[in-house]
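go over this record:
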Amino acid sequence: MNHEILKANISDIPDLCQMMKDFYAIDLYPFDEKTTTDNFVRFINNHHYGECFKIVFEQQIAGYIILAKYFSFEFGGEILFLDELFVKPEFQGKSLGKKALEFVKNYSIENSFKIVLLEIENHNEKAKKLYEHYGFQNHKRSLMILKN
């Protein structure tokens, strides 16, 4: 096996921040390094928020997964939100996205989450096809946000 998915730790934060910066640049999302670093420290140190994992391929960090936990009465209990899944461009085409989704599915089952939710950019057909292949489907509702 030339890949593994491991819990991220504090020493991984510089690599995680760089990958997130690259990921956000794809769709021109704002990125603040200090805020992101502080958020990673908070998230990694407080497992009640969820878990951050690094995708390692041939001893190199190739991507990351962020899984956030929350409770939903509608869905019958604790659910898992696949907040982010990113594989560096130079590691794409090596089935790491597929391996990451298999990992997420197994993690959700092993930890008794009722469902896994995710959001996707409407233009990202490649990711949409990958998610659909693993059983994800469009929900009948749209996502809305209120910024403070």
